[in-house]
Task: structure prediction
Amino acid sequence: MLDKLNSIEARYSQIEARLGVAETYDDPELVARLNKEQAELQPLVETFRTYQKTLDTKAQAEEMTSDPELKELAQEEYQQALDDLHRLEHELQILLLPRDPNDGKNVIVEIRAGVGGEEAALFAHSLFRMYVMYAESKGWHAEMDSASETELGGIKEIVFTVEGNGAWSRFKFESGVHRVQRVPETESGGRVHTSTVTVAVLPEMETADIQLNPADIEMQVFRSSGAGGQHVNKTSSAVRLIHKPTGTVVECQQERSQFQNRDKAMRILASRLYEAEQEKISSEYTQQRRSQVGSGMRNERIRTYNFPQGRVTDHRIGLTLYKIDQVMDGELDEIIDALAADHQADLLKSAR
Result:
């Protein structure tokens, strides 16, 4: 491990030196590329340098134990350095794990009402609000791509994009069936109903990332529906793309121009085809898709939101929080941090 870390630190120092030269010669493209690589290596290099300093502290404390007057203080410093080294070694192991190449990408989130009728649709709307608030708390931008709403304000299906560096690294843990237990507003008897909503999260791919044959794509245009004033009734700006080889259908109607809707629809299509290709490569297409969103049945849940008890339980890691109001207002970091830590532990186990 030390050889690898020394090699990475040497590369980091090389980047620092090259950045000074690149800025002198006014090469913005090279500067941007080096800055990106430097930012990716920085957490690892800084942790390694702290580790090296701690090794020196440990060695100095060990020498001082031979001095009777300093022995007690030296032993304390030695033990502290030892504890710090164990912690830093663990951090370095995690930082050395293979990085998900999509972690820096934007995400496309698809939410669909599952079992539970109108109550499921209303909860789908609540989840959409929760994710938008979470994105805003991170300084990211959430933008709706298409939606199918119910008369009572619920959502049958919604597709939206979250733009921001690192969005995939956080949102990727949200894929699956989300179960809600609460008393619906329409329930006069006060009985608790159980409903489900499915969430699928895809990394947003640029069309250049996927080979798309224009001959395989049929484009249809239609008038936008929903809010938007007279504009939506007069122009056919909404776009529907049909990928004929796979039957994949994508719609986008939120932008005011047909060109913008087509561009966004192409990126969503590329993301869905990328996901399908990744699943095909791993020979688990059906199983992986089902493991991500399931069929929407109540027993296929990854998380339960129990309103009468005020709790949220993530069943993958057995985490329960009694702060449902805060979670529904977008405070998801405690859950996602725990899921990310569990994921890292699995990777470490596999690496060993």
Q: What stands out?
A: Confidence is low (pLDDT under 50) at residues 227-233. The radius of gyration is 25 Å. Residues 2-95 form one domain.
